């Protein structure tokens, strides 16, 4: 019944929100914020000619005007308010989704698509290094500050934005 009425939790009152959240298995998929920026830039979702100018546009937008594609996850998913049952990290999808499907009583191997996590991690590591080198020290510092809550809430230990 709830699904037919609205699609955003913010449209419901607190009692209904609590009932809904209590009845679902809540899964949050997270990705390193710097990798999200790279992906957004490469998909052409920004109109900037260079990665550095795209990052400057992101920084100039501030959090309240930020696009959902680069807005900090903490402000989108409210992990301090919503108690997620699972947090799945991009780059470890194969292992984590297999475990999640098994916990749900589903046949994990038959439902999982082919993943190339190792290749993806290596490619993003190399790409991140290249793109990060284009940024000024000030932009690096501002990005770390922009995503400080994401970096605190999730274990992005290999992020270029982590200190």
From TrEMBL:
It is found in: Golgi apparatus membrane. GO terms for cellular component: Golgi membrane. It holds the Pfam family Sulfotransfer_2. GO terms for molecular function: sulfotransferase activity. It is an enzyme of class 2 (transferase). It is a single-pass type II membrane protein. Its EC number is 2.8.2.-. InterPro entries: Carb_sulfotrans_8-10 (IPR018011), P-loop_NTPase (IPR027417), Sulfotransferase (IPR005331). This is Carbohydrate sulfotransferase. It comes from Steatornis caripensis (Oilbird). The lineage of its organism: Eukaryota, Metazoa, Chordata, Craniata, Vertebrata. The gene is Chst9_0.
């Amino acid at each position: 019944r709830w699904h037919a009425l609205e699609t955003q939790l913010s449209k419901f009152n607190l009692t209904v929100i609590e009932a809904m959240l209590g009845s679902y298995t809540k899964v949050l998929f997270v990705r390193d914020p710097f990798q999200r920026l790279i992906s957004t830039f490469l998909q052409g979702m920004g109109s900037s000619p260079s990665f550095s100018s795209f990052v400057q546009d992101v920084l100039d937008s501030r959090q309240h005007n930020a696009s959902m594609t680069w807005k900090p996850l903490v402000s989108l998913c409210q992990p301090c308010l919503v108690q997620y049952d699972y947090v799945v990290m991009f780059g470890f999808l194969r292992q984590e989704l297999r475990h999640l499907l098994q916990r749900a009583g589903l046949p994990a191997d038959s439902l999982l698509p082919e993943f190339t996590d190792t290749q993806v991690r290596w490619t993003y590591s190399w790409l991140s290094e290249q793109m990060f080198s284009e940024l000024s020290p000030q932009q690096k510092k501002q990005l770390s500050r922009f995503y400080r809550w994401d970096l605190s809430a999730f274990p992005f230990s290999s992020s270029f934005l982590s200190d």
